[in-house]
Design a protein that fits this description.
Layout: H1 2-16, H2 19-46, E1 51-56, H3 65-68, E2 72-82, E3 90-97, H4 99-103, E4 109-111, H5 116-123, E5 128-130, H6 144-159, E6 162-164, H7 166-174, H8 178-198, H9 211-224, E7 235-240, E8 243-247, E9 258-263, E10 266-267, E11 270-271, E12 274-280, H10 290-309, H11 316-329, E13 333-334, E14 348-353, E15 367-368, E16 384-394, E17 402-414, E18 417-420, E19 429-431
Parallel strand pairs: 1-5, 3-4, 5-6, 12-19, 13-14
Antiparallel strand pairs: 1-2, 2-3, 7-8, 7-9, 9-12, 10-11, 14-15, 14-16, 16-17, 17-18
Helix pairs in contact: 2-7, 2-8, 10-11
Organism: Maribacter algarum (ex Zhang et al. 2020)
Domain Peptidase M24: 186-415
InterPro entries: Creatinase/aminopeptidase-like (IPR036005), Pept_M24 (IPR000994), Peptidase_M24B (IPR050659)
Length: 432
């Protein structure tokens, strides 16, 4: 009897080993299969790319390495996608393999890197897309030496057919499948719950806790949950009448402080970007001062207008123009640049609704002044976007100086417009 119990315990342990790792791996395989089946054909054809070669070298992996399925990379490795005129894009992996990639079931053919020349010549593509990009680091994975080597291996005939895959990479990544959106929602849950715990009395004791203590708590939660980040140290900062006072430093949090945080987590190749705001009650206070609360509410009104205005089927530039027209009509003032607020009694506003996804700042269509190229891209259903804004409103308790209220949460664009992926920032959090 004791032997049976012993072996049963071993079996149970064996079954539980690796469950979370396998769960995440299976979900990434589903994403990859769906992307290759549903997104890649239209992205390649819209951008007139007959073959797409993603190169990797041991110790110098392309930014799309995880999207491609990872695997063991030797001296040279190539993920190759070819439009052979059928519904399905042919997928091959040369010089890369290993259990995780092969068991993922995504590729049609595995071979040696030495087969590259013959492989390409047999298919004779009219255009060959390479990850060369002036505008996006995520689409610029091809090194100069790898470019020279490809040119040498394939010869002048095919080197003349090389084109930038910049727009292809943007389209491939930013057009989301349901399995990606599900992961992003899960990442969002981690992101906001950790942030809201950080801005609570669980973590903060006024007069004792520093800004960097809060940031390290958040980093520790990332470590415990095996989460990545696009941004390094979380930005935990104090905003006063004269602007930002300190960020993630040894500044001790005091009563009366207005706290902000800006951060995101990474989960299964999906990265969030969001903000939260809190107020530390002074002695005798039971709620957020009216002026600070009003400033937050003005920001919420701006957020509501942005959400109602952005629709798919137009360029991001047209969406931005429509948002500012709606804000102006509602009585808000469009700022001429970041932090260039005015003395007007109106709330000054600037938006930066950028693409999110495989980094905190994605490479898809972006309704943001700091992404000029992506402003020209068309908003599509399934694009992930950060609804980000900065609203500056006068606060009587500060002698009429303006408080900058930053709001940011992540959403998906659908046929209906903008839809949230997790519970968004509902209020100024209160720390007693």
């Amino acid at each position: 009897m004791k032997k049976a119990i012993f072996f049963l315990a071993i079996l149970v342990c064996a079954q539980t080993f690796g469950q979370e790792a396998m769960r995440r791996w299976r979900k990434l395989n589903q994403v990859r299969q769906d992307k290759f089946d549903l997104v890649l054909p239209e992205a390649m054809r819209e951008n007139n790319i007959a073959m797409w070669i993603v190169t990797n070298r041991e110790g110098n992996l392309d930014p799309l390495y995880t999207d491609m399925g990872e695997g063991y990379v030797g001296q040279n490795a190539y993920y190759i996608f070819t439009d052979i005129g059928k519904e399905r894009i042919e997928r091959a992996a040369l010089g890369v393999g290993g259990y995780l990639l092969k068991e993922g079931g995504t590729y049609d053919y595995f071979g040696s890197a030495d087969e590259l020349k013959e492989f390409v010549a047999k298919r004779d593509p009219k255009t060959i897309g390479l990850n060369i990009s002036k505008n996006f680091g995520g689409a610029d994975g091809l090194t100069h030496s790898a470019y020279l080597e490809l040119s040498e291996i394939l010869g002048e005939k095919y080197a003349k057919r090389f084109v930038s895959a910049e727009k292809l990479v943007s389209d491939f990544r930013s057009r989301r499948v349901a399995s990606e959106i599900a992961i992003y929602g899960e990442a969002g849950e981690f992101s906001y719950t950790i942030a809201e715990r950080a801005f609570s009395n669980e973590v903060i004791t006024s007069g004792v806790t520093t800004l960097e203590d809060v940031a390290w708590f958040m980093k520790d939660q990332q470590f415990k949950n095996n989460l990545g980040s696009s941004f390094g140290m979380p930005s935990v900062y104090i905003t006063g009448p004269d602007g930002v006072e300190a960020t993630s430093s040894d500044r001790i949090i005091q009563r009366g402080d207005v706290l902000m945080l800006d951060w995101g987590v990474g989960l299964m190749n999906m990265f969030t970007d969001m903000k939260r705001m809190a107020y530390v009650l002074k002695e005798g206070e039971t709620d957020v001062p009216a002026g600070i609360q009003n400033a937050f509410e003005q920001g919420v009104k701006v957020r509501d207008i942005i959400k109602k205005t952005i629709k798919p089927g137009v360029t991001a530039q047209k969406a931005e123009d429509a948002v500012y027209a709606a804000l102006t009509k509602a009585g808000f003032n469009k700022m001429k640049g970041f932090n260039k607020f005015t003395d007007l009694d109106k709330t000054d506003v600037i938006i930066g609704c950028h693409s999110v996804g495989n980094w905190g700042h994605g490479i898809g269509p972006s309704v943001a002044f700091f992404n000029p190229v992506r402003l020209t891209y068309e908003l599509k259903p399934s694009n992930l976007i950060s609804i980000e804004l900065f609203a500056y409103t006068k606060v009587p308790e500060w002698g009429g100086k303006k408080l900058r209220v930053p709001l940011e949460d992540d959403a998906v664009i659908t046929e209906r417009g903008v839809e949230w992926l997790y519970p968004i920032n509902p209020k100024v959090l209160v720390i007693k």
